[in-house]
Amino acid sequence: MKAWMCLPVIVLALAGCAGKTAYRDSCGSQLDAAWQELDLAKAEGFAGTVSYSKALSLLTGAKTQQQFEAFEGCTKKAEKARFYIRESRAGR
Predict the structure, then answer these.
(1) Which residues form the signal peptide (predicted)?
(2) What crossing angle do the helices spanning 71-89 and 24-44 adopt, rounded to 10°?
């Protein structure tokens, strides 16, 4: 009888763990691409320093979220950072 009572708890715990990893690959690949783009933007020299600063701030936050396994937020921040990197390279 006790095993039947524990089963729903185990199922919910496993479902929660599976939900955490849904964005894991996306987070990692977005972060890698964004850091490479940021290095390229820095090397080229550009006028969009405000956009560059925003991108750097977002990437720092995304990396922090990755460390705490908040992969969905990490992915969203990295995508926003890539937008600001493109803006900085355009001088905006």
Answers:
(1) 1-18
(2) 20
